[in-house]
Design goal:
Layout: H1 2-20, E1 24-28, E2 32-34, E3 39-45, E4 50-53, E5 60-75, E6 78-91, E7 95-99, E8 103-106, E9 109-112, E10 116-121, H2 133-138, E11 141-147, E12 158-166, E13 171-172, E14 177-180, E15 187-193, E16 200-205, E17 208-222, E18 226-230, E19 234-246, E20 252-262, E21 266-270, E22 287-295, E23 299-300, E24 306-316, E25 332-334, E26 338-346, E27 349-362, E28 366-370, E29 374-379, E30 384-389, E31 393-397, H3 446-474, H4 476-497, H5 502-521, H6 530-539, H7 544-559, H8 567-587
Parallel strand pairs: 2-10, 23-31
Antiparallel strand pairs: 1-3, 3-6, 4-8, 5-6, 7-10, 8-9, 11-12, 12-17, 13-19, 14-19, 15-17, 16-17, 18-21, 19-20, 22-24, 24-27, 25-27, 26-27, 28-31, 29-30
Protein name: BatD family protein
Pfam families: BatD
InterPro entries: BatD (IPR025738)
Length: 590
């Protein structure tokens, strides 16, 4: 019996030793790489296996592989075996990623690799190597952000032109994909997109001949002074490049490769508007403007209406300030103005006209002067303030009732004769036609029994309402859900009001999402990227699916500025925003 047990133990130890000798691991060429670099990952085993299953490679695109390599050698009679599956990956965006487990079956047992953390940073400069297609492509295409002025004044227009320079010996089509979209924090921005209608120009890049296309022109108006950063535009560009191999006819073989190019960050130093010489009525207008105040009539009768128009015309930040308001005599009734904008935005900035139309109704006869109105603006070209003034306008009301001031004549005694009319007091009734009021005993009357019985009837109602209130207070989950939904609709109320206007809607929606995080986390989110927001929410135990939904809505707000959006899509985005804010509020731990 002891011998049999010894054999079992010996067999178990041998099997365990064989089991421990199996090795299956994942190795990466680097744990930190730039957005324009490639990553090689090898899954290596020391025994042959079956049913190899790679990970999903989330956050990366597979550009090569699987390549299989087998090494089988004998050294001093000892066998050495190695089998490797290799993949080549390119990152899709910046961030921290985890390459998951790969699995394989060896002798009926399943083995898995450990997850590997990889950090993807901004695009980096690559060293030249003639045998690497990615490196061959690195000098063939360049993305440049040309800024018209790097030191503008506050609210002065600047233009960012994104140009892609392509070498003449490679071919690029228009199916590139944006990986990172520029962020214009603290800027008013509008894109002039050329997608689908590109024109090829001849030019030079660093002294060499290139072709280039203008991908996008963006007009910016800085809303804050100091150093402001423009996040880079990053593209994944498919291209065909020549290799070092030749065809039988002597030409170079060409292969397709995807190249990630980035325009790089740009820093804008925004100067404050000078305090010296600033007019008291200056309201933030920056540019070059003309100013006019006019009416459609100056002579009319009381209770008739006229229109007064205040116009500002020219080039500058027309959408970012209000025309000067008017001050009228109290006898002229004025209504809220109607604002009309005829503003176009081109590569040099905003230009056109803004106009406010007031409807005015005089109440009394007389002459009413409208005093001159002033309008001040700052001209960045002359670096001086300019003040424009309108002409005085006199409104002549010919017919209508007189005010007490108008009834005063130029006679020396300053008195008017009092004229009585027989109809002057006809509204006063001289015969009242009063009738006696019948007195009814209060005791045992209908009113008596109503006042006596009503409190008794209200007691069971109060008891019922009290029980329902206790049940509602005890429903912690329900109260939390209702509170979260009210909070979501509170922040999104402005966006809901602008469902008919795409640009205003998505601006309000994005601002609501940032204001919600600002209120919840007590942070400034306007200067944060999506990775930081994701980490902050994850630290407060918000689920990954909810975080992804929140970031997806933020991306929708950014993309919707450059792409058309239907009312249905806007309503869906609004509903998704309500749901995600509600979910965050239910999950977040403060």
């Amino acid at each position: 019996m002891k011998l049999k047990n010894f054999i079992y133990v010996l067999f178990f130890m041998i099997a365990s030793s064989v089991q421990a000798q199996v090795s299956f691991e994942a190795k990466v060429s680097k744990n930190k790489l730039g957005l324009n670099e490639r990553l090689r990952i090898d899954f290596e085993m020391n025994q042959d296996g079956d049913n190899f299953r790679p990970p999903s490679f989330e956050g990366f695109r597979v550009i090569g592989g699987p390549n299989q390599a087998i090494s089988n050698s004998y050294i001093n009679g000892k066998r050495s075996y190695s089998k490797t599956y290799s993949y080549f990956l390119t990152p899709l965006s910046k961030g921290s990623y985890s390459i998951g487990e790969a699995s394989i079956e060896i002798d009926g047992t399943s083995y898995t690799t450990a997850p590997i953390k990889v950090q993807v940073t901004d695009a980096v400069k690559l060293d030249k190597d003639g045998d690497n297609l990615q490196e061959l492509a690195s000098d063939k295409v360049h993305l440049v952000a040309e800024v018209s002025k790097t030191s503008p004044y506050l609210n002065e227009a600047i233009t960012v032109v994104y140009k892609m320079y392509v070498s003449r010996d490679v071919t690029v089509n228009s199916n590139w994909r944006e990986i990172d979209t520029p962020k214009y924090a603290d800027f008013w921005s509008q894109n002039i997109d050329s997608r689908g209608n590109y024109k090829v120009y001849d030019g030079k890049y660093k002294g060499e001949d290139y072709r280039y296309v203008i991908l996008r022109t963006t007009v910016l108006y800085p809303q804050k002074t100091g150093k402001l950063e423009i996040e880079p535009l990053t593209l994944d560009v498919p291209m065909v490049v020549p290799t070092n191999r030749r065809t039988i006819f002597g030409g170079y073989l060409q292969k397709r490769v995807n190249k990630v190019v980035s325009a790089g960050k740009r820093t804008i130093k925004v100067k404050p508007l000078p305090l010296e010489g600033r007019p008291d009525d200056f309201a933030g207008a920056v540019g070059s403007f003309s100013f006019d105040v006019s009416t459609n009539k100056t002579t009319l009768d009381a209770n008739q209406s006229l229109e007064l128009k205040v116009k500002v015309n020219g080039n500058g930040n027309l959408k970012l300030f209000d025309p000067p308001s008017i001050k009228l005599p109290i006898a002229l009734e004025v209504y809220e103005p109607e604002r009309n904008e005829n503003v176009r935005t081109n590569a040099s900035g905003m230009g056109g006209q803004i106009e406010e139309t007031y409807t005015i109704v005089p109440q009394y006869k007389g002459n009413y002067p409208i005093r001159p109105i002033t309008f001040s603006y700052f001209d960045p070209k002359t670096e001086k303030y300019t003040t424009l003034s309108s002409e005085e306008i006199v409104i002549n009301v010919e017919n209508g009732p007189l005010t007490s001031e108008a009834n005063t004549t130029s006679e020396t005694n300053g008195k008017q004769p009092v004229v009585l009319s027989q109809d002057q007091f006809k509204y006063i009734k001289l015969s009242a036609n009063l009738t006696p009021v019948e007195t009814v005993p209060f005791f045992k009357s209908t009113t008596f029994w109503t006042l006596l019985g009503t409190p008794l009837l209200l007691i069971p109602i109060f008891i019922f309402v009290g029980r329902k209130r206790k049940e509602r207070l005890a429903d912690v989950a329900g109260n939390k859900t209702r509170k979260a939904n009210r909070l979501a609709r509170k922040y999104l109320s402005e966006a809901k009001k602008n469902l008919s206007n795409k640009a205003t809607f998505y601006d309000a929606l994005e601002r609501a999402l940032h204001n919600y995080l600002k209120a919840k986390l007590h942070i400034e989110t306007s200067e944060m990227d999506k990775d930081t927001i994701s980490n902050l929410l994850a630290q407060r135990e918000v689920s990954k699916s909810t975080i992804d939904s929140f970031l997806t809505i933020l991306k929708s707000c950014e993309f919707a500025r450059y792409t058309p959006a239907s009312t249905t899509a806007m309503q869906e985005d609004y509903n998704s925003a309500v749901e995600v804010i509600s979910n965050i509020d239910k999950q977040i731990v403060l």
